[in-house]
Design a protein that fits this description.
By secondary structure, this protein is mainly beta. It has a single domain, classed as Porin (Beta Barrel). 6% of the residues lie in helices and 66% in strands. The chain is built from 2 helices and 14 strands. The strands form 2 sheets. Strands 1-3-4-5-6-10-11-14 form an 8-stranded antiparallel beta barrel. Strand 3 and strand 4 form a beta hairpin. The radius of gyration is 25 Å and the shape is rod-shaped. The two termini are 20 Å apart. 33% of the residues are buried.
Length: 269
């Protein structure tokens, strides 16, 4: 439906001044806001197409499609955990870990569908105000974790002993640890959006918009029912531990998309 509307607007904008077709770019602040740990907002960029229909010269409704990237770091000065496990020799024990200065980088990309309404003043230089909502569909997502130090150990209550070695058993102290990139699968996002600025009419059919925008996520996009351990013991190959996201472990939660900054649009009517 969106493609049909955009195509119709592009083919007929010169014939029907009630229709407007525009191309936009925006940024640079685009990140994931969350609870738990210290999140560090990163940069992202958006690029999109929009079709608008004018109800009158000052009021229009629009729909479009955008590609938006999001980048965030989440930091923990110290984070630890412990849980029961079974080692390679079928001995029960408690696996323990403690990470110092953990930093997880998350990169997401979404295809957003904005639907909104726009008001603008008369004249060739106009003030405009637009608002509405967006539905976002995850296109890609990944995370990577860095730690200044990770210490792992195994406590065997039947012997009342805690082992900090050997490394081949999964027990060691490792400095400057960097995990491989892993997929981060997120859910559909629903966001409120607002944009305001100047619209300059150029000639009889073209315009340039320069404005500020804010998109704010209304829902948690990573609502996982089953918690995972941040550092996962691997009994089949103890020397190779597995690592999960801080959102998998529950250390961070309530993941929402936020984007704001400058938006430039080139429009044709």
């Amino acid at each position: 439906m969106i493609t049909a509307l955009l195509t119709a607007g592009f083919n007929s904008y010169g014939q029907d001044k009630k229709q407007e077709f525009s191309i936009s770019v925006g940024g640079p602040f685009s990140f994931v806001k969350s609870t738990g740990g210290e999140y560090v907002p990163g940069n992202g960029v958006s690029a999109g197409l929009r079709y608008s229909y004018y109800l009158n010269e000052g009021l229009s409704i629009g729909v479009g499609v955008e590609y938006q990237t999001y980048n965030t770091d989440i930091k923990f000065g110290s984070i630890s955990g412990r849980y029961n496990a079974v080692d390679a020799e079928n001995e029960s024990f408690q696996f323990r870990y403690k990470a110092a200065n953990l930093r997880e980088e998350q990169k997401l990309a979404y295809i957003n569908v904005p639907i909104g309404i726009q008001f603008e003043t008369p004249g060739t230089t106009k003030l405009y105000l637009a608002g509405g909502f967006k539905i976002g569909f995850a296109s890609s997502g990944s995370f990577q974790t860095k730690m200044d130090n990770l210490t792992t150990s195994g406590y065997y209550p039947q012997y009342n002993v805690e082992l900090f070695s050997p490394a081949f058993a999964g027990f060691a102290s490792t400095n400057d640890l960097k995990t491989s990139k892993q997929d981060l699968k997120t859910d559909v996002s629903y966001s409120a959006t607002v944009e305001t600025g100047l619209k300059q009419v150029i000639g009889s059919t073209n315009s340039i918009y320069i404005g500020l925008y804010l998109d704010y996520g209304l829902n948690n996009i990573y609502d996982k029912k089953e918690a995972k351990n941040l550092v996962q013991y691997n009994p089949d190959l103890p020397v190779e531990l597995k690592y999960n996201s801080v959102f998998d472990s529950g250390a961070s939660h309530n993941m929402r998309l936020v984007s704001y900054g400058l938006k430039i649009r080139f429009a044709m009517r």
